Task: inverse folding
């Protein structure tokens, strides 16, 4: 019995010594124990690279030009990696006014569908893009009242084909971006530059001040007889992205559209504050 007890005791001491040596070796090497492998999802794709967004704006300004009031919209964007550096983008955006009163107590009708396809190349120091967009203006470019376009000529177009070149980069905490676009329908161009600075308040809340400046070339949707080329607008904004879940973000914002040379004659308000909110979900 004493012999058996001695064997058990010695075996226990040997096992304890081995365990101590293993623990010491792991500590001295600075390596943590390997985590258990995560179970496979069994899905064809981990994510689709898609973003679905819905939103509301008190005023709808596009490139400094007013279109309608109280608009709701929904958009879907898909990013498909072609190589490690090149990706294909596909997108659709539908916008419609809920209520846009006119000066004579009538109601302006406005709805728009944008379909886009793009290629983006990540060069490391910057991302370069080539994008084609088809705009459908179901109530004409400037809306309609009782089915009749508000204006004729360029502001009464119902469809536009556009191609653009974009660039985006980061300098420290600041995101920089720019774009140049050519409108085949009216034969005119538009360029813009912008910047934003995300400021993290908490793990789920950020404050993002931003500013954008636009320039129109050769009668880029201007009234005949006015300045045909020049600065369109400058628009500072402040948004507050709120991360609701890992995939859902709610973003309220406030903006101040300031009309410049080629927008003074076009807009119903020369300069004004407006705002809105959007909900985005990635999957």
Result:
């Amino acid at each position: 019995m004493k012999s058996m007890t001695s064997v058990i005791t010695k075996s226990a001491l040997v096992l304890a010594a081995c365990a101590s040596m293993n623990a010491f070796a792991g500590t001295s090497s600075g390596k943590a124990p390997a985590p258990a492998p995560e179970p496979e999802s069994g899905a064809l794709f981990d994510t689709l690279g898609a973003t679905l967004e819905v939103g509301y704006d008190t005023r709808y300004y596009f490139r400094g030009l007013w279109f309608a009031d109280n608009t709701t919209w929904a958009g879907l964007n898909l990013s498909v990696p072609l190589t490690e550096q090149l990706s294909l983008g596909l997108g659709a955006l539908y916008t419609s006014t809920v209520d846009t009163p006119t000066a004579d107590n009538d109601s302006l009708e406005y709805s728009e569908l944008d379909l886009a396809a793009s290629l983006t190349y990540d060069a490391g120091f910057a991302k370069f893009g080539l994008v084609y967009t088809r705009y459908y203006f179901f109530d004409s470019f400037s809306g309609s009242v009782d089915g009749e376009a508000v204006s004729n000529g360029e502001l009464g177009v119902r469809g536009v084909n556009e191609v653009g070149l974009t660039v985006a980069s980061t300098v420290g905490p600041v995101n920089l971006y720019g774009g140049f676009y050519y409108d085949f329908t009216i034969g005119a161009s538009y360029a813009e530059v912008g910047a934003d600075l995300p400021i993290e308040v908490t793990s789920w809340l950020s404050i993002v001040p931003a500013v954008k400046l636009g320039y129109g070339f050769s009668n880029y949707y201007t009234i005949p007889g006015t300045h045909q080329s020049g600065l369109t607008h400058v628009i500072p904004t402040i948004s507050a992205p709120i991360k609701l879940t890992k995939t859902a973000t709610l973003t309220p914002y406030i903006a101040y559209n300031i009309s410049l040379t080629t927008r003074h004659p076009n807009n119903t308000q020369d300069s004004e504050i407006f705002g809105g909110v959007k909900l985005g979900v990635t999957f």
Remarks:
- The first strand starts at residue 50 and ends at 62.
- The chain has one domain: 50-282.
- The first helix runs from residue 2 to 29.
